Amino acid sequence: MLLDEGRQKASVAVFKADFEHKLHPNDFALVKYLFLKYDNANLLNLLLKNNKSFVNHGNYSKDFLEEQIKEPDQRILPYLNGFIVRFKADECESADTSWETILEGAYFNFLSGIKNSFLRNWFQFKLNFQNVTTALACHDHKISSENYLIGTNTVTEIILRSNANDFGLHQEFPEIEKILHAWQHDTIIEREQALDQFKWEWIDDQIFFHYFTIERLLGFLLQLEMVERWMKLDEKTGQKMFDLLLRNMNKEYELPEEFNLQYVKRK
To answer: Are residues 131 and 156 in contact, defined by beta-carbon separation less than 8 angstroms?
Structure first.
């Protein structure tokens, strides 16, 4: 599969479909974790009857989710099953906590148990990153972040206890330094560019020593997803990120023998 200028519009979803046929089932199962966020969005939209378009990037079809909403069973992941049951029982934590926040909390709690260390670290980083940026936005608007933070861990507990600009997180979450630096940009676009650049570099660091393992493919998909996002927000930035991804992949993206059904290395 070539990744060149003529194929820069190939989406993450296209690569997912291709990987399903080329990867060992155990490794493709890891790829599917990256698409659970679309299942979350689709399930929530169906439950809340928002009439939003169904996103086909997820792992579950619309018919399957509608069937599960009627009668959830073991075919759906436990955190989604539990959320459906909770939603139907109207067991919301408080009037100020959204169902989206509750689902996100269950989602990240589920992902914390993934055996693959790259994915587990990525989702932990993403959770803390999201909570810190949420807290910073709340701080800017002088509102409490209590009902907007996702899940409960040491980072959220420190955020809720602290009035400092950095929330006193330098020891527990040293990555906050780069987030605070990005937050100083004057425009939202510049801020978002800096934040995504930080996430991009984090991924590069994590996969640096993974040469022919599933982790490199997972990192590639995460970075390609950023490229897709910026192609929509700011094409110039998106093209720049695409060119970087292209250079990193040496002008092409072909599955080496190590990734086929017999030889793929698993963590």
So the answer is: yes
Q: Which of 222, 227, 219, 225 is nearest to 244 (CA)?
A: 227
Task: Give per-residue pLDDT as tens, 69-118.
Answer: 999 999 999 999 999 999 999 876 666 789 999 999 999 999 999 999 99
Neighbours of 37 (CB within 10 A): 15
Domain parsing of the chain, residue ranges: 1-34+187-267, 36-111, 117-173+180-184
Residue 252 to residue 49: CA distance in whole angstroms: 43
CB 68, CB 88: distance < 8 Å: no
Amino acid (1-letter code) at residue 135: A
Torsion of CA 123, 219, 55, 197, to 10 degrees: 80
Comparing CA positions, the residue from 82, 113, 86 lying closest to residue 97 is 86
Distance in angstroms (rounded) separating the CA atoms of residues 244 and 261: 29
